[in-house]
Amino acid sequence: MTASAIGGRTLRLDWGTTYQVTVFDLGLACCGVEVMAALQDPRPDLEALGVTPAGGPDEAHVLVVSGTVTDVMLPAVIATYQRMPEPRYVLSVGACSNTGGPYWDSYSVTKGVDQVLPVHVAVPGCPPRPEALLEGLVALHRLVTGQERG
Ligand code: SF4
């Protein structure tokens, strides 16, 4: 079990079968750069929460979809999810991934990755701040463990 502080509160996170959760970022546009920066920069807060970047989807239990999802990319997005071992969760990061964002009326943009994948947590923003990724992971953890918010 690990502990970290967010928003002045102390959190204790236990991901169930392991002290760490592996996260794979499918960065498709600008939001992907933000997530990459958050995951690749050694962040004590992420490490304290037990978050480890995965080398590929085969070793990840959380898929972060960040950036503009285009219809032509959908087969690759679905294939990435299907390569992940169970249990697997999806964190949608940013307006584009959530709804199509600024490109919602484009003929080529998917109006939310939840149309093809089971999104467990959606993080708003264009782009969200790195701290929002952290809060999204905490929200996902609460969902997985059935903890009450507070
Ligand atoms: S939500 Fe904004 S920052 Fe993120 S991918 Fe779309 S346009 Fe870029």
Automatic annotation (TrEMBL):
<dbReference type="GO" id="GO:0051539">
    <property type="term" value="F:4 iron, 4 sulfur cluster binding"/>
</dbReference>
<keyword id="KW-1278">Translocase</keyword>
<dbReference type="Pfam" id="PF01058">
    <property type="entry name" value="Oxidored_q6"/>
</dbReference>
<dbReference type="GO" id="GO:0009060">
    <property type="term" value="P:aerobic respiration"/>
</dbReference>
<keyword id="KW-0813">Transport</keyword>
<protein>
    <recommendedName>
        <fullName>NADH:ubiquinone oxidoreductase-like 20kDa subunit domain-containing protein</fullName>
    </recommendedName>
</protein>
<keyword id="KW-0520">NAD</keyword>
<dbReference type="GO" id="GO:0008137">
    <property type="term" value="F:NADH dehydrogenase (ubiquinone) activity"/>
</dbReference>
<keyword id="KW-1003">Cell membrane</keyword>
<dbReference type="GO" id="GO:0015990">
    <property type="term" value="P:electron transport coupled proton transport"/>
</dbReference>
<keyword id="KW-0004">4Fe-4S</keyword>
<keyword id="KW-0408">Iron</keyword>
<dbReference type="GO" id="GO:0045271">
    <property type="term" value="C:respiratory chain complex I"/>
</dbReference>
<keyword id="KW-0874">Quinone</keyword>
<feature type="domain" description="NADH:ubiquinone oxidoreductase-like 20kDa subunit">
    <location>
        <begin position="30"/>
        <end position="140"/>
    </location>
</feature>
<dbReference type="InterPro" id="IPR006137">
    <property type="entry name" value="NADH_UbQ_OxRdtase-like_20kDa"/>
</dbReference>
<dbReference type="GO" id="GO:0048038">
    <property type="term" value="F:quinone binding"/>
</dbReference>
<keyword id="KW-0479">Metal-binding</keyword>
<dbReference type="GO" id="GO:0046872">
    <property type="term" value="F:metal ion binding"/>
</dbReference>
<keyword id="KW-0472">Membrane</keyword>
<keyword id="KW-0411">Iron-sulfur</keyword>
